[in-house]
Specification:
With 164 residues, the chain is of the alpha/beta class. A 5-stranded parallel sheet has the order 2-1-3-4-5, with helices on both faces. Strand 4, helix 4 and strand 5 form a beta-alpha-beta unit. The protein is globular and about 50 Å long. The structure holds 5-O-phosphono-beta-D-ribofuranose. The site of 5-O-phosphono-beta-D-ribofuranose (RP5) has 10 residues, from loops.
């Protein structure tokens, strides 16, 4: 029977991040990896965020993907509250195009790591693929799907024709 309890918790600072973060949720879905996606903020809803992290851990989530924009401290706060791996995705921001998000997320002081991915859709999809790779270490089905995904991707690149 397919597992329905979330293995990955996706959290984003605002519902406005969903356009980008839906790429992570969609990528996980392609691998049949259940996830729980929430909009919770480190500064607007800190107590609800802490509660969700604790509940997610208790219910068997194996890692978190955290996305935020601007002074993007969400991923660091999630990492402070759990010892599970935290994968950070910097959101494109209105004035600095996500450079602010990237730098505030990637420059974590020593001791509380956040594995930071690219700004935007590619980062969201790659964070999901990285979560899949971690889960594949202890799940042969997921490992097989990841091998197949890579093979399909390789074939697609090799068979693609350049425009005339
Ligand atoms: C951050 O501020 C969110 O992660 C979002 O990327 C950014 C803007 O949020 P909204 O003003 O759209 O709610 O906390």
């Amino acid at each position: 029977m397919a597992r329905t309890k979330p293995l990955v918790g996706i959290v984003m600072g605002s519902t406005s991040d969903w356009d980008v973060m839906s790429h992570a949720a969609r990528q996980l879905k392609e691998f049949g990896v259940p996830c729980d996606s929430r909009a919770l903020s480190a500064h607007r809803t800190p107590d609800a965020l802490a509660e969700w992290i604790e509940t997610s851990e208790k219910h068997g989530v194996r890692c978190f993907i955290a996305a935020a924009g601007g002074a993007a401290h969400l991923a660091g706060v999630v990492a402070a509250k759990t010892t599970l791996p935290v994968l950070g995705v910097p959101m494109p921001s209105k004035y600095l195009q996500g450079m602010d998000s990237l730098l505030s997320m990637v420059q974590m002081p020593k001791g509380i790591p956040v594995a930071t991915f690219a700004i935007g859709e590619a980062g969201a999809a790659n964070a999901a693929l990285f979560a899949v790779a971690m889960l594949a270490l202890s799940d042969v089905n997921i490992a097989r799907k990841l091998e197949e995904f890579r093979e399909r991707q390789t074939r697609a690149v090799l068979s693609a024709k350049l425009p005339e």
